[in-house]
Predict the structure.
Amino acid sequence: MPNYRRAIILAVFILTALYLLSTPRPSPPADLQRQPTNTPKSEGDTAPHPISTGRANGPLKQDSRPYPPPRQLGDKKASDQQPIGQASATSLREQLQYQFPYDLEGKFPAYIWQTWKYTPASGEFTDNFRSAEASWTEKHPGFVHEVVTDQAAVYLMRHLYASVPDVLEAYNSLPLPVLKADFFRYLILLARGGIYTDIDTTALVSTTDWIPEEVPRSTVGLIVGIEADPNRTDWREWYSRRIQFCQWTIQAKPGHPVLRDVVATITEDILRMKKKGILKAGKMDKSIVEFTGPAVWTDAIFSYLNNPTYFKVKGNNITWEAFTGMEIAKKVGDVVVLPITSFSPGVQQMGSKEPDDPMAFVKHDFEGNLELRLLLPWLTQRNRYMETRKRKNSP
């Protein structure tokens, strides 16, 4: 009899347990539920520095999580996504705008991009560049600082521009390293933003001090400096433009229209020359300065400043006259232009002041091959000029 009672009790216990386990549990009160995390408007809106696949150089020294894909224009629904066929039918500039939208009110991403044959960790990294490269980390703690090798740049561009095949084809088709180095700076800033600076530049002042405090950074999307301001009648013999903007140091927010335009222009030129069979050293129909260098960069900036799509153009166009002889920063729309002293101190010409001047922010040592294309024509003209003077003065 006791065994019979035990069996009944055990059966009741098992049935009760099965009932409790199979019954849905009620949801907790609303104030105890964990709310989903909202996706930030842009990378810089909620973080002190952007999310990256690299490592931050700040005090925490911690690996960061993968960078999210670019935010699309507006609040797009799933049905608004471009079909593959439709994307290929749109213009190159429209594809770039879609993939890399411009958010003026977002923060400048805290990236520093440089490119060279080797990384600083390599024993083959040039000793002459070590102090210059380190200065950018020292002046910008917390920034993600990347020195991208030529080989790594190929994979990085493949990752960033896989959805824009024309750009990827153009980059991979360039025949000279100097052309790829030029193109790389525009491509990386368009896709990720931040600061690009040549490996032979030294940071004198943190980027936080590049523009006046009274200018809200939410109204600025591009910071450039003047490279050349030759106030002489024969300037065409020495420079490509009367005012020439520097492209060895640029700060930008991702997706800026100037970057979009220069990337599209260079891509179109590359594919055109490739189709004609002249995309080879010594056969191209444009000089390097005009093709990927400061000339095409300067033209893109002036084209943007005079574009009625972005600005209410009244009266005369904005020309070199708006920037010649500058000694302080000037803001035009969302572009801040710095005087020649800011990125070219100590050149002892065109009004440039010394590196200890308050407006001197970056010093360029011209030790890399990136600027050799600029110096050779200048030296050639200078040597001819000096030789002519010697002949005139000789008895």
Residues 182 and 293 are 6 Å apart (CA to CA). The radius of gyration is 28 Å. The mean pLDDT is 79. Strands lie at 111-116, 144-149, 194-197, 201-203, 222-228, 244-245, 249-252, 330-332, 335-338, 362-364.
